[in-house]
Amino acid sequence: MNFEVNRRDFQCRLLCGLTAAAAGTVLTPWSAAQAAETPAGPVLKVVATFSVLADIAREVGGPAVEVTALVGPNADAHVFEPTPSDVRRVAHADLVITNGLRFEGWIDRLIAASGYRGPIVVASRGIATRQLSGGADPHAWQSLANGQRYADNIRAALVAALAGKSPARVAEVEARAAAYQQRLAALERDTRACIDALPAERRRVITSHDAFGYFSAAYGVTFIAPRGWTTGSEPSAEAVARIVRQARESKASALLVENISDPRLIERIAREAGLKVGGELYSDALSPPGTEADTYVRMFEHNVRTLVEAMSVGVVGKASEAGDKPR
User: Fold this and answer.
1) Which of 52, 73, 77, 311 is such that its CA lies 20 to 30 A from the CA of 288?
2) Are 65 and 58 in contact (CB under 8 A)?
3) Is 247 exposed, middle or buried (0-12, 13-18, 19+ CB in 10 A)?
4) Which CATH number is 68's domain given?
């Protein structure tokens, strides 16, 4: 295979095909004109535990929902500590959306403190869970097929909450959900095409914690999360030395930092291992509004583009004699 020619080919698909799927201009049947014609109806106050769920709820619910995320952009749900204002948000919600799979270890206490008695939707309900040593892997949204399940669970919860109150709102949510499912399905096809264009031996990357297991199983990329490295604490000097050894021995094609992790640590490891950082991935949170990964679709598109470009050029390897520094 002419790898350089094929690399240009799938990079073109990344920049064009994936972006088209994200834009949804052809695939989305729910037009702005249709939305404008929808009669006003009840607006549900929805509280989602973190930014990915909040975005999916906004996409599916549209003007029928007012969504708040407890854990916002670039924030780590693993170390989140609810505040009194979070208690008030939950207390006044019409619907609470959680990931489940023990992702939000604080959510039961928060709901109890708020006195909330309304419906709670577990977005991950019905997925085939991946197991880690400590139990189920909660990062199920890192597979687009699972993302479609999340969207459908949220759709069902919104429809149930609106049923009997506004048939027009229910129809609007159903139409938006169908359009969103088409966008995710198109993005899934493009993702597989882009990654399948890479030789299997190049599909190995190092990340800062084990958040991409579902992505790995779905798309055939091996993610190496060095032992002794978590988002909640900084590794000891001994752990850093062990991580550096693992990085050198891994034969990975890319070393990437996550948006919820301190980039200084991965830059230190890259420097000590003689490697380069291939870019930033979004794992547990979206980026701020108006930036590169501010929706679930744009997050996935960004991650695939970053992975494919890093793995295709082999940015991880011995740093050049010219003294290149990691980004």
Assistant:
1) 311
2) yes
3) buried
4) 3.40.50.1980
Integer Cα distance of 186 and 22 in angstroms: 9
Tally the domains of the chain: 2
- DSSP for residue 78: G
Do 282 and 163 have their domain in common? Answer: no
Are residues 117 and 133 both part of a single domain?
yes
In a domain, 94, yes or no: yes
Q: What is the pLDDT of residues 135-145, one digit of tens each?
A: 999 999 999 99
Contacts (Cβ under 8 Å, ≥6 apart) of 72: 51, 285
Across the chain, which has 327 residues, the per-10-residue mean pLDDT values are 45 49 43 52 95 98 98 94 98 98 97 98 98 92 98 98 95 98 98 94 84 96 73 68 79 74 73 79 96 98 94 53 38
Q: How far apart are CA 247 and CA 241, in angstroms?
A: 10
Q: What is the pTM of this model?
A: 0.84
Please list the residues that pair with 257 across neighbouring strands: 280
Flag whether 323 is in a domain: no
- For 281-311, the pLDDT digits (tens) are 999 999 999 999 999 999 999 999 999 998 8
